[in-house]
Amino acid sequence: xxxxxxxxxxxxxxxxxxxxxxxxxxxxxxxxxxxxxxxxxxxxxxxxxxxxxxxxxxxxxxxxxxxxxxxxxxxxxxxxxxxxxxxxxxxxxxxxxxxxxxxxxxxxxxxxxxxxxxxxxxxxxxxxxxxxxxxxxxxxxxxxxxxxxxxxxxxxxxxxxxxxxxxxxxxxxxxxxxxxxxxxxxxxxxxxxxxxxxxxxxxxxxxxxxxxxxxxxxxxxxxxxxxxxxxxxxxxxxxxxxxxxxxxxxxxxxxxxxxxxxxxxxxxxxxxxxxxxxxxxxxxxxx
Length: 287
Fold this sequence. Notes:
Layout: E1 4-8, H1 13-22, E2 29-33, H2 43-52, E3 57-60, H3 67-70, H4 74-93, E4 98-104, H5 127-142, E5 146-151, E6 154-155, H6 162-172, E7 175-179, E8 183-184, E9 187-188, H7 189-202, E10 207-210, E11 217-218, H8 219-230, E12 236-240, H9 260-266, H10 273-286
Helix pairs in contact: 1-7, 2-4, 4-5, 6-8, 8-10
């Protein structure tokens, strides 16, 4: 019998990329759900669904990701980011299955100066970060066969994201100020989806893993690259300090993730961030 994979949050950036790549992985049987098909905050509904559909692997792409709004919506954020992964974990563990839980660089406070490894102490500095870390813990507590993948700065051809926003603003405005003192690595959701499939194919090894594209940049560098690769020349981008652009939630100043573990465990190669950005922009042009 084919391995049956449930992908939650299927209408989001990562969920949509998983849906696309699923066409190339016909060795599995798939269930794609979003809130209309399955409310993952409903423990009984999750248990019933997973049992009825005989799910073997859950890839949880669903999350409350509005980082600033989370500061004023902690209860909802907690339900979706902390409790729901526990419900999914419990349901799939009852079938002897596995869970892939997507997490975030926000579990760190961003005060480091070298890339974060999986065993670095966590210290979230926002509601979003705290609830996502809680989700990691709930997942492991209820399903020992859990793979947590922390990622950062996610973008894709789907939904609303930083790349699309900077393309729009670059074409609308003559000047743009962008933060230069927050450093990390963009992640093309399609590359993350490919790594998830690689892990499932090789056999999920439980534990925490880090994944983003290779390289390091600031939001300013990221924006300049988006405009350069898209041929936007009419907008002058200026660097800003974080304190010149106050936000409701605290952002990590440094959130570069060390990807050694995921590369060694699953034998994957990680693309450089500008190469993946170029591919995403090409796909957006073709859409």
